[in-house]
Amino acid sequence: MKVTDDKILKIALITSLIGIIGLIITTPTIEVKEVEIGQITRSMIDEEVAIKGVVENVQALSNGETYILTVNDGTGRIQVVIFQSAVVEIQESETPLDTFKEKHVEVIGTITEYNSKMEIILQNSNSLKIV
């Protein structure tokens, strides 16, 4: 059997379509791991997680473009960092960040470490919800 450019092209297209269909089928089943704040350790740095808890404090940093929420779920406290892009999106949805204080929220973000403390970096404005 002679391998021609047409056959290679057909094989590549079929393989690509099978891969794309596989991604479409499996993507909805991928879920973010929900953890308790007390379970978060250094070994989880760079993992994407979901937490639920009560916002104890909302603090704007001196630049006014970054906010820090202190979230408590009963097992511990953690700071959630919200950078300017997400802050702008949240404020455009006409929800001031101060309204999250003392509310029960769900946060999806990436675990990081800053000054020897664990933090969660908010992914985007859709990753912070009042529940």
Automatic annotation (TrEMBL):
Domain of life: Archaea
Pfam family, one: tRNA_anti-codon
Keywords of this entry: Membrane, Transmembrane, Transmembrane helix
Record-annotated OB domain positions: 49-123
One GO molecular-function entry: nucleic acid binding
SUPFAM superfamilies reported in the protein's UniProt record: Nucleic acid-binding proteins
InterPro entries linked: NA-bd_OB-fold, NA-bd_OB_tRNA
Regions crossing the membrane: 12-30
Name used for this protein in its record: OB-fold nucleic acid binding domain protein
Source organism: Methanobrevibacter woesei
